[in-house]
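Cont'd.
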Amino acid sequence: MSRTTRLLVAFCFLLPAVLCVFLLRLWPAGLALRNSLIAPGDGGYSLENYRYIFTDPDFLNSLKVTLVYSVIVNPLQIGIALALALLVNAKGPLIGFSRTLILLPVAIPQSVSAVVWGVALRPDGQINAILVALGIEPQRFLTSPNQALMSIMLIVSWIGVGYWMTFILAGLQDIPKALYEAVVIDGANRWQQFWYVTLPQLRRPLTFVLVADTVANFLVFAPVQILTAGGPEGSTNLIMNDIYTKAFVISDPESAAATTIVLVSAVLIVVTLQFHLMSRGEDR
Amino acid sequence: MNEHSSALRYAAIILAALVFFMPLWWVAISALRPADEIFRYISPLSLQSFWPEHWTLTNIVGLWEGSFRRAILNSLFVSAVTVIVGLAICSMAAFALAVIDFPLRNAVFMTMVVSFLIPFDAIAVPLFGIMRDLRLQNTYTGLILPGIGNGLAVFLLRQFFLGIPKELREAGFVDGMGWFGIYWRIYLPLSGPAMISAALILFVFQWQAYLWPLLIAPAPQFKVAAVAIAQFSGQYDVNFGLIFAAALFISVIPMVILTILQRFYSASVASSGGKE
């Protein structure tokens, strides 16, 4: 069969998917880039929109909130996911079922989880009932500028931790038993086994989870928009909510485009770092 | 794991599972108890906080009679079409990328991989401008389109197709099949598990979607369940019985699917990056 025929056949098979890639990724990304370079009332290309957003207190606050949120929530989620994976990496009745229960929240739409947790975190909600039963003062949670971001972290962690656990668990089950046997002969205790065998062997899944989790947390939107709309006092104005607010609440499409490009760039930098980290590991 | 630690470990596993399951249990009992009892027994904690005194289907029935019905049917329809069309598009692309040897194949593959690294939600706002100009606002097409091209599904199916022996397709050519016959009658029937994984990925994406349907389909007759419940809960006079019934309904469908197909789901999760 000739090269031309094969090319033609491949073209037909690929056409719908290529159109999707173009329409759903490249065109909007390109459009956002173009719009971000055209300042309002100015026909030419310039960096004016970027200069504007980087002097805009709302945007700078949203960058700060996103950074603080990311620095806390990613290690927190990965730590819990790792602990859970180590815990449920056992055989026996009910253990598979327990894994499923921990994974279930990820199957629920985030908007539903947000609504449910919004009720549970009300002053008269479940969480305060539990606190009171434990002898702790009731808290304001989502209505307090000091606690709202932490409450969002609680919600997204309940949603996502079981999902990340699944990747780490798959990695744990791939570690050859012989490695443990070798260090046990050398007299390694539980902690040394974890430090010298488990952690190094989990490098790939942990790197992947770190990057995928970081990207996922950059994109958190539904809980913020539904529960706090970025408040109180901008304390939960994560970058996706900032883009949404710019585009649809205060109708500033140029700033929204520039902020979108900042977000896409951040995502691509994180993902590129992942490939870098993973390929470097293979050389060793 | 020695005998001594396993009892303790069991207790810890059960406790962790209960902590994660508790909010879901609370959704279920709130949906199945009279609406005026939802908040009555929250504090102080008592047996009724965890087990309703009276069970009722009033909320579920009310859900089906109210405006939520349309939203749930919309979600089901949009997700079903997404899975069917998405599987066709993604598996055809994966077939070309795995099986047909054509010039620039690696370049096309790399372009697709890199493009899909841009998360959909990040470009949802500019895409909304494009779709609005294409007059796709408040249409099912507008709702469905973003779900049908999925990079992870293409990647997963391509990996699976690469593992199918070359001899099978050569035998197909000898029997007079064309490329489409090879795809339809050899590759697809051999790819059940991978197709189920891909279907799950496509389904979950669409069933969970919130930002996109919020933008593209604000009209009541096109509203999907994930958006409807959020807007319903923001109203001044909220019927929490209906809210929890809706939450239960929207959650139960993916939870049942996930529980039954967890084997495939975990396999797709593992092959998407955790392992190589």
